[in-house]
UniProtKB/TrEMBL annotation:
InterPro entries: Calycin, Lipocln_cytosolic_FA-bd_dom. The lineage of its organism: Bacteria, Pseudomonadati, Pseudomonadota, Gammaproteobacteria, Moraxellales. This is Lipocalin/cytosolic fatty-acid binding domain-containing protein. Residues 4-66 form the Lipocalin/cytosolic fatty-acid binding domain. Gene3D superfamilies: 2.40.128.20.
Length: 66
């Protein structure tokens, strides 16, 4: 939730780039704009709880963690 109490939402497409190490490439643009450079980010699935209800996701630069 943001500071106004509203839910923030992002719609993206995830592509598995390294299944063994749980590395994803995420695109936040509509499919027709996927060819634009620098429109994707790398994310790593760091931990998933046994019931697959919660995941810890980060990115290689260690700047963001969700």
């Amino acid at each position: 939730m943001n500071e106004n109490g509203k839910v923030d939402e992002a719609i993206a497409e995830a592509i598995i780039v390294d299944a063994e190490h749980a590395k994803l490439e995420i695109r936040f643009l509509p499919e027709g704009l996927h060819g634009i450079p620098f429109t994707k980010d790398d994310y790593w699935v760091l931990k998933i709880d046994p019931d697959y209800q919660t995941a810890l996701v980060g990115e290689p630069n260690k700047e963001y963690l969700w």
